[in-house]
Design a protein that fits this description.
The complex is a heterodimer of chains A (235) and B (196).
Chain A lengths: L1 H26 L23 E4 L3 E6 L21 H16 L4 E3 L6 H10 L3 H4 L6 H13 L3 E12 L4 E3 L4 E3 L4 E10 L5 E10 L8 H10 L10
Parallel strand pairs in A: 1-3, 1-4, 2-4
Antiparallel strand pairs in A: 4-7, 5-6, 7-8
Helix pairs in contact in A: 2-6, 3-5
Chain B lengths: L1 H28 L4 H4 L4 E3 L3 E2 L10 H14 L4 E3 L11 H5 L3 H5 L8 E15 L1 E14 L4 E15 H6 L1 H17 L11
Parallel strand pairs in B: 1-3, 1-4, 2-4
Antiparallel strand pairs in B: 4-5, 5-6
Helix pairs in contact in B: 3-7
Classes of the chains: A alpha/beta (235), B alpha/beta (196).
Chain lengths: 235, 196
């Protein structure tokens, strides 16, 4: 009888382990796989000799404070912000520079004529929206202004958000557990000035982790983001 | 005589403590902001999906009705709206810094107080057990003056360890969403019951 119970328990444990593995794979642990890959180049691409202007990234470091369900262990335990917004700028810009190398002419903000620089400054507040590929009326006007200066201009915009919040917990009294609500999101897009269309876009969401600026995980996430970077009409 | 005095003093102290607590509770229930006191009916617009990455299926209508239900529990007259209005696609950036003209186009034309709720994230995962996380943000506008009355963010967590928890994975997203809504609307002041 006890052998039967033992066998039954062993099967149950093995089955639950297998179930766990299958579910983890189905969830696509964002720390290991891209959430959304690079989009294919779209029609209406500009002429060859694209000049891509690398805009200043839009960066948000947020700490979400929230009322947590009662009964959880350490409900007020919040993870501190992993870094300052300015500290993320360098890794983001250098990853974009590496991705563009050999694929298009890259223009940093410091290399631009005052008129081009001014046109780009108007697009900077729209970076978070543009990085998702949402081009509104204001952005269309801004891109048209840029194209009027040189129709080979395109922009590369990046949006980065790192969020901390209530962390992991385990309540030994009732077995309740929670996962960290921290996350890191990186979105980037290349938009043509001439057509105001998205030439490439990519997105990477890392759940349960607020990556610090010098973390290897951030470097890996950026490398994954630009892994399939390809723009039609580049050099 | 001394015992009587002592007893009276203790009773007096207990009554005073109760009175202070009751007064504090009563004060918390009243809307501290007069803008909430003037609200007649809040229309909750269809939920806006602002999630990044892989999107799990969520019953947005159920979520919208969940918001209405929580508002009703706080004694607001509330209902779901079938349209988001004439602004076209609503982005999170539009909500963060809205122009009064843009606010006036939100929701049905005859509505005055409109609430916009965004689903920022919802996920569940299997560990030794299972967990669910959700994040929502909300904005309450007064279309009369095009102003933002309230905004908030709510994070919800749910989870259960062990084999039982593993079997409950399917319920985790819903539990996390309920928790996130509760958390989001916790900062909306509760109104006194009508007629009081």
């Amino acid at each position: 009888m006890s052998t039967r119970i033992q066998s039954f328990l062993t099967i149950l444990v093995l089955a639950s382990g297998a179930l766990g593995q299958v579910a983890t794979a189905a969830d696509q642990d964002p720390g290991a796989a891209p959430v959304a890959g690079a989009a294919a180049p779209q029609a209406g691409a500009p002429s060859a000799g694209l000049k891509v202007i690398l805009l200043k990234p839009s960066i948000r470091v947020e700490a979400v404070t929230s009322v947590v369900r009662p009964g959880m262990l350490d409900p007020n335990e919040y993870i501190p912000a992993p870094g300052l917004p300015a500290e993320y700028e360098e890794p983001l810009l250098s990853a974009a520079e590496q991705a563009l190398a050999g694929k298009a002419t890259l223009l940093g903000m410091s290399m631009l004529d005052p008129s081009v620089s001014e046109a780009c400054k108007k697009l900077e507040p729209l970076a978070s929206r543009l990085a998702r590929g949402h081009v509104n009326e204001e952005a269309t006007d801004g891109l048209a202004h840029l194209a009027a200066l040189d129709e080979r201009y395109a922009i590369l915009v990046q949006f980065f958000r790192v969020e901390t919040g209530p962390g992991n917990s385990w309540n030994p009294m009732n077995g309740q557990i929670t996962s960290s609500s921290a996350s890191t999101l990186i979105q980037a897009a290349v938009l043509s000035g001439k057509t105001a269309k998205v030439l490439w876009k990519g997105e990477r969401l890392i759940r349960y982790k607020a990556l610090p600026p010098n973390d290897f995980g951030l470097k890996k996430a950026l490398a994954d983001l630009y892994q399939n970077f390809e723009i039609q009409g580049g050099n | 005589m001394g015992r009587v005095l002592k007893s009276s003093l203790i009773i007096l102290l207990v009554i005073a403590a109760c009175a202070v607590e009751c007064a504090a509770k009563k004060r918390a229930e009243f809307p501290p902001d007069p803008r909430f006191a003037t609200i007649q009916e809040i229309l909750v617009l269809p939920i806006i999906d602002t999630r990044a990455g892989k999107k799990a299926s969520v019953n947005m209508t159920h979520l919208q009705h969940g918001v209405v239900s929580v508002l009703k529990k706080k004694h607001y007259s509330a209902g779901p709206a079938s349209t988001a209005g004439g602004n076209g696609q609503i982005d999170i950036e539009d909500l963060e810094s809205p122009a009064p003209e843009w606010v006036k186009k939100l929701g049905p034309a005859d509505a005055r107080w409109v609430m916009v709720v965004c689903l920022d994230d919802v996920t569940s995962k299997m560990t030794f057990g299972s967990t669910g996380n959700a994040e929502v943000s909300g904005y309450l506008f007064d279309k009369d003056n095009g102003g933002l009355i309230w905004k908030g963010k709510g994070v919800g967590q749910a989870g259960q360890g062990g084999l039982a928890g593993m079997m409950m994975k399917g319920t985790m997203k819903g539990a996390a969403l309920d928790s996130a809504l509760f958390s989001l609307l916790a900062s909306v002041p509760k109104r006194p019951k009508p007629g009081k």
